[in-house]
Amino acid sequence: MKILLLKRKRFTILAGILVALGMIYAVNYPAVAGVSGTARQLPIYSVQRDQKLVSLTFDAAWGNEDTQKLIDILGKYNVKATFFVVGDWVEKYPESVKALHDAGHEVMNHSDTHAHMTKLSRDQILADVEACNDKIEKVTGVRPTLFRPPYGEYDDKVIAAIRSLGMEPIQWDVDSLDWKELAADEITRRVTNKVQSGSIILFHNAALHTPEALPGIIEKLIQDGYQMVPVSELIIHGDYTIDHTGRQIAG
């Protein structure tokens, strides 16, 4: 009898461990069937591309010290980038938003107030995103089609809400960590060592050493055969799937 109870106890413990492992796997390796699937939805972190295409992206939420410098550097190399801007930032710096648009860069949505989107209801998310869309469209004449969640935070509710607006949520697979005030050469190494075809690279418009690092990064990417395009030109339009790493794949 004691042996039987011991076996049952061991079986119960083993079953509990297997369930826990299954839950960990489901959270960390979500299978994504596509925008209409019932599995966990992910934003786009990178794109499967045969060509050597990458996107430079900049988040603008607070400062505005270097926006014109970035426009000038990108213009020197004839590179078009995507700027994800917060609605409050648009209100403070409409002239910079217009300058970005006039220079041919994409101005996309980074929320209205840089709130933690996972803490909002679906209706609050929609209202926040549309408020930012309205502000950007008022300045540029173009309504955003891409969204980057503040702090990189999201859940199924956030992603479903964004896609219900016909917008695509965008993350990144190469983080410059420029907001940590890393030295320019360290920012350059981080980016150029991790980039691959289809990468989406994250910078910030007001990070201390980004203007210093950017020319070398662009020159190295060009030297390695990469073409830099806005995110809307990098991502796949039409049928696609997203794998567990957030990589968008055609078909």
Give descriptors for this structure.
251 residues; TIM Barrel; 15% strand; disordered N terminus
Model description:
GO terms for molecular function: hydrolase activity, acting on carbon-nitrogen (but not peptide) bonds. This is Polysaccharide deacetylase family sporulation protein PdaB. It is a single chain. It contains 9 helices and 11 strands. By secondary structure, the chain is of the alpha/beta class. The chain folds into 2 domains: 30 residues; 205 residues, TIM Barrel (Alpha-Beta Barrel). The strands form 3 sheets. Strands 2, 3, 4, 7, 8 and 9 form a 6-stranded parallel sheet that branches. Strands 1-11-10 form a 3-stranded mixed sheet, with no helix packed on it. The longest helix has 27 residues. The protein is globular, with a radius of gyration of 21 Å. The N terminus is likely disordered.
Gist of the model:
The protein is α/β, with parallel strands linked by helices and 251 residues long. The chain has helices spanning 2-28, 67-76, 87-92, 94-102, 122-140, 156-164, 184-194, 210-223, 231-234, and strands at 46-47, 53-60, 82-85, 106-109, 146-147, 168-169, 174-175, 200-204, 227-228, 240-242, 247-250.
